[in-house]
Amino acid sequence: MGKLILEMGCDIRMQALGHAAFGIWVMLVGLIDEIGLNGSVTFGMARAPSLADVARIRFGMTETELKTHLETQSGTELISWNGETQTLAYGPELQPSKRTLANRENGRKGGRPPGKRITERTDPAQRHMPPMLIKGGKVMQDGKTQPETHAPIAKLANTEGNKARAKLCEPSTEAIDAVYRRIGPKAFDAAGFDPARSMGNWSAARQWAADGLANGMSADEIERLVVAEITTITERQNAAGKPVTHLGYFKNAISQAIALGNIPAPVRSEKELAAEKDWEQAMKEWMRAGANGPQPQLSEFLQKVAA
Q: Which residues does the annotated region (Disordered) include (predicted)?
């Protein structure tokens, strides 16, 4: 802006108008920079105030006086003024070029897309060269033109071994039946069902027994998990006024609990809790004595309480 003012101060057209006109020109150019867009401003449109407000606030004159200055300076092409559209713009020498306007528009859209960019595919110097290897990509082995359609022998052997180990972990029918007969009636009682009306139908518990044993749980752990889940869900449904009518309702919840291993801790009696405290005290004394002698066993204290 400062360089522009110095250049226009030496312009013969500006010198012919006088110092007052030069000051008004500087204020008009500053107004275009302040509220204009692409080198022009239309008064009374968008964020630009009316010409009367600009004349009164910025120049301290009437609208007619400001129009006279605009028409006078527009006649010498110091500025551009259109009285019909109320548009003020830079003079022809200061107007932005078409390239500048295009660059501004492209910048507003995110930039002009790249043109002919040279890549590995478009570079003529590399057209007849083999493609470059990419880190992490697949490399074809010499002599192999078709992918393998079968798994290697080692992978087959590993798969067979997994199947064999799975069969070893699979519980027997006798073990499943034993746990099923144990947890079935207790699951039935935990749900609050009437044995006379439902005729003892707790067949859904058989799958819970099989899943629990397959996950390495003992019969006691399966029983605690099933009873705890059924008790929690039954209390919630009864409080909501929607009682459960069959054991199949607990299928998803119990299967998920077994898969996650959410086994509740065993319920201890007062005598067992007292035996555990005695064992902890015995362990502390054994540690203070330098771990001399046999280590106290919790099972021995629990056996004393049971006897």
A: 96-122
CA-wise closest residue to 188 among 205, 175, 176, 209? 205
- 274 and 189 share a domain? no
**pLDDT for 250-259, tens place per residue?**
888 888 989 8
Nearest 10 degrees: Cα torsion 43, 45, 50, 55: -30
229 lies in the same domain as 285: no
What total number of domains does the chain contain?
3
Rounded to an integer, what distance in angstroms lies between the CA atom of residue 232 and that of residue 1? 79
Separation of alpha carbons 212 and 206, rounded Å: 10
Q: Contact 87/41 with Cβ under 8 angstroms?
A: yes
Whether residue 33 contacts residue 1, with contact meaning beta carbons closer than 8 Å, is answered with yes
Quickly state the pLDDT bin for 193 (edges 50, 70, 90): confident
Averaged pLDDT score across all residues of the chain? 76
Tokens of 268: 């201890």
Q: 3 pLDDT band (50/70/90 cuts)?
A: low
Verdict on whether the full-model pTM lies above 0.70 = no
Best CA proximity match to 61, nearest among 85, 89, 28: 28
Cβ atoms of residues 34 and 40 within 8 Å:
no
Tell which residue, 13, 35, 37, has the closest CA to residue 25: 13
Do 10 and 83 fall into the same domain? yes
Query: Which SS3 state, helix, strand or coil, does residue 37 take?
Result: strand
Q: What is the dihedral of CA 231, 236, 240, 243, to 10 degrees?
A: -20
The sign one gets for the Cα dihedral 171, 174, 180, 182 is negative
Q: Please report whether residue 235 resides in a domain.
A: yes
